[in-house]
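>> received
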Amino acid sequence: MAKNQIDLYKLSYTVYAKDSGGNKHNVTGILEELGWDENENELSTKISFKVMSKKTKHGTTSQILKPGNTVLVYANVGSGSQEVTRGKIRHWKNSRTNETHGIEVVAYDDLYNLQMSQDYFLFASGKTAKARIKQILGKWGVPLGKYQGPTCRLGKKKYEAKYLSDIILDILKKGGKKDGAKYIFRGTKGKAEVIKRGSNSRIYVFDVKNTIMREKTADATDMVTKVKIVSKTKKAKVAKTVAVVKGDTKKFGTLQQIYNKDDDESVSEAKKTAKGIIKRKGKIQREGQVKAPDVPFLRKGDKIKMNFKTLKGYYYVTRISHDADTKTMTMTIKK
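>> returned
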């Protein structure tokens, strides 16, 4: 067993459902096809499963598992049960044949409302990235838990009829450009959190002994090797170049991106942002697809280590799908 891996023989999952009255029901024994997914550029975790229709002392499963009610998923690897995800039921399908009667359930965590809602926001110049995110979350009643995100001040910005998820990701992207870091917005135990990518303290290691399938790609199609910083006043007809930041133009040639400097942004601040763009996009993007025995606590944004000739070193999880029936997971990972 590779370092920091878990014993599949000890791994078990438990699913609870809360009915409209707040009563908690263990539905694990009548459940199948349990899985949950975290996708890149999406905020909310999706949970899906099927359950047999059955009568209980609190009502039928169709009454317990109905839209708006909460489901909680726990995992135990021998050291106690821990919550891995939760969500509210958004889709419910009751199907019946001559032999079976079951319910298909799809739930999403509390970030789903941010993902599906649009609004208008005007942020004043100098307001920090954290303050902007807290303002959005406060308006939607979503509490903010851990915050490891950017603390920098940002320029004036107007968002008109934009999805809240796009606004939040844009704020984190702009903050990340300034400090050259990557941030992940995700839900944990009913709260939103912003983590720095790869900040997990426990790093799982994968090798030939505990990996079912692996693929690798190397992509330079979206590379940026030069950033031209421009500034345009209301009177000027053509934008003025104020600075240029270069990466590896000798090896890959000039692949240029334009960065429009905000009016209240200094040239040094703009250059710092441009350097962050080069740091993130000025290199070959290496991506892998990995299928392995399930680590239910592994999440999008976590850092892992791969010990293969073609996939070697540290990678970050950008997408992950857990399958409780087969006790496996499928990951997309990037350098």
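>> The radius of gyration is 23 Å.
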